[in-house]
Amino acid sequence: MDRVEQKLRLSDEEFKRNVGTTKPVFQMMRKMLQQAHGKLHQFGGQSLTWSIDDKLLIALQYYREYRTMENIAIDFGCSKYTVFRAVRWVEEALSADGRFQLPGKSPARWRTENGSD
């Protein structure tokens, strides 16, 4: 069973405490990200390394739990830069829709402040 399915099996209260949002809002985010991915890859392109659900969980952990990208990378078995790209993509896709306002902890600022490219 994947990470999202495990979390969706939690009660509504446990889900909100664990993920940081309600199940309906989470499902809305999933749908918006699936649409954004579809538009981005409508003419082909590289397949996903991480599922949309995993990218969403990575971003929510980054914002909700104030975890470092390095700690999240260890949990997901990837590089810190992969976490950065996932958070940035989720942030840009949700912000572009206009229904979500994301907190000011922007990975783009993190990248500039730390001088990494």
What is shown here, in short?
It contains seven helices and no strands. With 117 residues, it is mostly helical.
Give start-end ranges of low-pLDDT stretches. 108-117
- Structural category: mainly alpha
Task: Supply the number of helical segments.
Answer: 7
Terminal-residue CA separation = 35 Å
Task: Output the radius of gyration.
Answer: 14 Å
Number of strands: 0
Overall pLDDT score: 81
Into which percent range does the helicity of residues fall? 55-70%
Q: What is the global morphology?
A: globular
Give the DSSP E fraction (strand runs of 2 or more residues).
under 5%
Order of helices and strands: HHHHHHH
The protein's oligomeric status is single chain
Major sheet description? none
What key phrases describe this protein's structure?
single chain, 7 helices, disordered C terminus, mainly alpha, 117 residues
Give a verbal description of the structure:
The chain is mainly alpha-helical and 117 residues long. It has a domain at 29-42 and 49-113. It has seven helices and no strands. It has helices at residues 3-8, 12-19, 23-40, 52-64, 69-76, 80-97, 107-113. Helix 3 crosses helix 6 and helix 5 packs across helix 6 (80-97). The longest helix has 18 residues, at 23-40. The protein is globular. The N and C termini lie far apart (35 Å).
